[in-house]
Specification:
Elements: H1 10-25, E1 30-33, H2 38-51, E2 55-61, H3 69-79, E3 84-88, H4 90-97, H5 103-124, E4 129-131, H6 136-143, E5 166-168, H7 176-185, H8 190-193, H9 213-229, E6 237-251, E7 254-267, E8 275-276, H10 281-294, E9 298-303
Parallel strand pairs: 1-2, 1-4, 2-3, 4-5, 7-9
Antiparallel strand pairs: 6-7, 7-8
Length: 316
Amino acid sequence: MSEVRFTFDVASFVRRAVEEVKAIVGDEKAIAACSGGVDSTVSAIIAKLSIGDKLKAVYVDDGFRRRSEPEYVVELLRRLGLNVALVDAKEEFYEAVRGLKDAEEKRKEFRHAFYKVLSKAAHEVGARFLVQGTIASDVVEAVKGVKTQHNVLVQVGLDPRAYGLEVIEPLKELYKPQVRELADYLGLPPEISNRMPFPGPGLLIRVVGGVTLEKVEIVRKATDIVEEETKGLKAFQAFPVLLKGKATGMVNWRRAYGYIIAIRIVESEDAMTASAKEIPYGVLKRIAKRIIEEVPGVVRVLYDVTDKPPATIEFE
């Protein structure tokens, strides 16, 4: 087997990060917000190496995850030796965003609910420290005002102590490729180190405009199809978005006024820029056919060919 080559000194970074977390937490306890993505999982593992059993990982089920994702991720994290609590907060999050249509309002209310739920989880185990997987691209986009990031507070002038928390962000100066290198160095399985990025607010921001449980379920079903049909393609992200409004279609030669799904598949290294991926036409046709046949209420499927910039990767 050939030797793995890293682009930066991962061993030194891990040693330094472990010591920094240990120095901050000391003899106290901490929780780690862990979604199963590479950023939050690497942060949690670093914290575990720092403070051992004084760390409690928390997976928040906000109701905007992919199908069966909470159970899958919790089991995966437990196999990594993390002590994980699954927090069912679906009602809190849905109430927080009910009736909102503006993308930034949705993101901000999600962020508020996110830290409220984590504050409660921390209080229950007697912790005041929160370890989270914020990376440099999150900070840059939040600070520049591109969009609100659910896991960025201090850098935009917000005080986590308002939630009774002290935030620790071991990866805040790194970008995605470096975090993936850390995951490989730490021996994390490919299901995590190579996992496709998924937005913090999940399917909430893949429903453009107002959110209903019906719309979330539509985009969840479409997500299953897109991920199945693009499994063999090399892409940074591949996902469907439920667009605002409806369009005319035909079902059994009768007019049907239904939903529109846009497919977004991009190539990127660090999420700061991205290129729309050229997809074989047969794959796109198969995705469209399956979505229209298997997802009730959808009558049109579009493919987004816009790069970043001028677009962002996500629609909201």
